[in-house]
Every structure is written in structure tokens, then in C-alpha cells.
Design a protein that fits this description.
Layout (H helix, E strand, L loop, with lengths): L1 H11 L5 E6 L2 E6 L2 E6 L4 E4 L5 H4 L5 E3 L10 E4 L7 H15 L19
Antiparallel strand pairs: 1-2, 2-3, 3-4, 4-6, 5-6
């Protein structure tokens, strides 16, 4: 099920600057280092931003994302019934793109070298 959803999302966002990355127990689609959507076995998570969140929550099968019990402002969790059709999925991806593509690119994190141990 997750693989099918990943393929459906990939077809909607064929951009060269979109990267897939394993996060949040699923596969996230990143644009310029910022998460766009995340496909998992259970549902879809979309980053719509705080301004679009109230509108997003009016859609069927959408709820505030609370992975640890605390809300993640600007992130929406969508049950599978809310993205059954390509039109519904496309609507969520487009809402997320509107927000995420306006964000500045994230700078890659530089890994710190481990300090050498002395005997």
C-alpha cells in the first residue's frame, strides 16, 4: 500500500529537485531540504503551513498531526479515505507545494568529525 502511494505521489511531483528520504516511519518527499509530504502504511502527512492549516482541517479525513501527543503546527494527517482519488491526493500535494516551495532552501547539516581518542 505504501509503495503504491509513493508512486502516486512521485507521478504528481516529477521535479528534479524533489528528494525521497526515509523519515517519520515512512517515505518523505523533500523540496530544497524541506518536507513536503510523507507517505506511510497508515496515512499521509502533508506540510501545509500554519496559515493553510484551518482550511486543510475542514477537508474530510484530515486531522492535526500529533505523533507524540503534541500538535505539530502546519502539519496535517490524512486518513487513506481522504486521498483515494488522484484528484484528492493532488489537492493535498498542491496545498503542501504552495507552502513548502515558498520556504527558503535548508542548508545541509555539516557532520561534525568525531574527536580522536588518545590513549
Amino acid at each position: 500500500m505504501e509503495d503504491v502511494l509513493i508512486e502516486r505521489i512521485r507521478a504528481l511531483i516529477p521535479d528534479k529537485d524533489v528528494v525521497q528520504k526515509r523519515m517519520f516511519g515512512g517515505t518523505c518527499f523533500m523540496v530544497n531540504g524541506n518536507m513536503l509530504v510523507c507517505a506511510s502504511k497508515r496515512n499521509l502527512m502533508a506540510r501545509v503551513g500554519k496559515d493553510q492549516e484551518p482550511e486543510a482541517l475542514t477537508k474530510p479525513f484530515a486531522s492535526q498531526c500529533r505523533p507524540t501527543g503534541r500538535p505539530m503546527p502546519g502539519f496535517i494527517r490524512i486518513e487513506p479515505e481522504g486521498y483515494e482519488s488522484d484528484e484528492e491526493l493532488g489537492s493535498w500535494v498542491e496545498m503542501a507545494r504552495t507552502y513548502v516551495c515558498a520556504l527558503p532552501p535548508k542548508q545541509p547539516k555539516i557532520k561534525k568529525a568525531k574527536a580522536e581518542r588518545t590513549a
